[in-house]
Amino acid sequence: MLNYKLHFAKKISSLLAGIEAQDIMAWMEYPANSDQGDLSLPCFRLSKTLSKSPQAIAEELKAALEVEHIDHLEAVSGYLNIYLNKSMFVETLIRHISHSGERYGSQNLGQGKTVVIDYSSPNIAKPFHVGHLRSTVIGNAIYQIHTFLGYRCVGINHLGDWGTQFGKLIVAYQLWGSKEAVNERAIDELLELYVKFHDEAEEDPTLEDQARSWFTKMEHGDQEALALWQWFVEISLAEFQKIYKLLGVQFDAYQGESFYNDKMEPVIQELKEKQLVEEDEGALLVRLDEFGMAPALMLKKDGSSLYHTRDLAAAVYRAEKYDFDKLIYVTDYAQNLHFQQLFKVVELMGYTWFSKLEHVAFGRVSIEGGSLSTRKGNVIRLENVLEQAVQKISDVIDARNPGLVNKAKVAEKVGIGAVIFNDLSANRIKDIDFSWEDALNFDGETGPYVQYTYARTCSVLKKAQLHERDEIHDIEIDGTCLQNTEAIAVVKMLYLFTERVEQAMVKLEPSIVSRYLIDLAQAFNRFYHACYILVDDKQVREARLALVKCVQTTLQNGMKLIGLQAPEEI
Ligand code: ARG
């Protein structure tokens, strides 16, 4: 499909000496008001370089630009307004979407490049909370978007499966736990043991020493300690995997923090050789004062490693193993400092790939005003949130469409979709207050609204085939049949898909795709209400059906990018 901005920018650049097409492209706009053209170039920035008034430039361009693809041009108040040849635009776009199908919107931007994405990464023996959900959903979308644009992606789950907390858990388990209780209650039991440890340790500080010594045993490969740790990991993982299955998310590798146990020593050596670390009361740290940051702690005084140590070893390992173009970490903004420190240490070590490291930070989620943290006794389990969403959607379906076959499956797709979409509904850095009413509203800017619109396209197409026995001739249609305002608005939205997906990749901002889906769904619904589709006039009917088909394809492609399922009936 022709990229109109690029096409016109190149033509204009060839008419104006010394002005790059890339710049012109960046200045071009899609006017919100169609009276100002389909595309428009403000000529103000050209004025200085060309020593002419913006209006004079616009007029010159109007006279010189060739008319291919263009209906007419206008030079108004320093703007060059371009009016496309609409029927040609409609016909080429519909042909292009029909040919491309599930590839519509994709590009080959990432050929030969690898992107490593570190996301989800919950902590073993602790429940999966909404922050991990948001990391999972955003990380998965970033993964899908890059894949769609031709990158090779490696999705890594950097499980929190190592650290002093496991020493505590072992002590607690041996004192108060039982095999049966852990097997039966899984993470709930582990969390309770962990909480009990903290309560008891306030009274009896020797518990802390015992915990430390168990963790040291783990770090030295003690069989008994490792067997218990392994068991805790398996139990937790089994629960996490239930959630991943519900969300439809997969990873290429589970490489938790423990994966780096034998990879930290060489990195510490390297830090020493490069004279980047200093000892401070027995601990080892990298000072970052001159960069306005607190020091990054690399070893505690008992010699044990930390979150930082494992992340540094992980970064070095990934650089060697994957030779990445980008390494992306998806966590909430509470870890901003951690990643700033990490990236700085990598830079100080002299690795040029430090510039390829990106922290994709996101805001906090609270439910109906309340916090969702794992504070003592006050844990809202993510699984419960998902189950409730499915249940509530199931109730809505009972009321709207009681005869629906596969109701349970559909309710699952829509309920989960609502939660996923809610996480992507605003710029990622914004905090989200999750409200059941907003997230599940079929008429709001929600996952269910997008899914419902998709189902509507399916039902129109099905009806057309049943009653009219029409094949949908989506390849060759008469573009003059789709010239009314609502149809053109849909066509323009369809056209923007490719560009929006690319923006979402560049800005690492999946909400650009979710926003797009809402815009497209709204444009389509306006068209649907304004124009009866199955009219008698064959040419008009075929053209409208082809447009519906293109909306279906584009919604489906976009939904897949953000991990939303596409049910054909709701
Ligand atoms: N397990 C950490 C947490 O729950 C997130 C890990 C993120 N990834 C990383 N490489 N540090 O906060």
UniProtKB/TrEMBL annotation:
SMART domains: Arg_tRNA_synt_N, DALR_1
Highest rank taxon of the organism: Bacteria
Residue ranges constituting the Arginyl tRNA synthetase N-terminal domain according to the UniProt record: 6-84
GO MF term set: arginine-tRNA ligase activity; ATP binding
This protein's record includes keyword Aminoacyl-tRNA synthetase: yes
Keyword field: Aminoacyl-tRNA synthetase, ATP-binding, Cytoplasm, Ligase, Nucleotide-binding, Protein biosynthesis
EC annotation from Swiss-Prot or TrEMBL: 6.1.1.19
Subcellular localization(s) per the UniProt record: Cytoplasm
Motif window: 'HIGH' region: 122-132
Domain DALR anticodon binding per the UniProt entry, residue ranges: 450-570
Listed NCBIfam families: argS
HAMAP family linked to this entry: Arg_tRNA_synth (MF_00123)
Subunit (UniProt): Monomer.
Stated name of the protein: Arginine--tRNA ligase
Naturally occurring in which organism (per UniProt): Paenibacillus oryzisoli
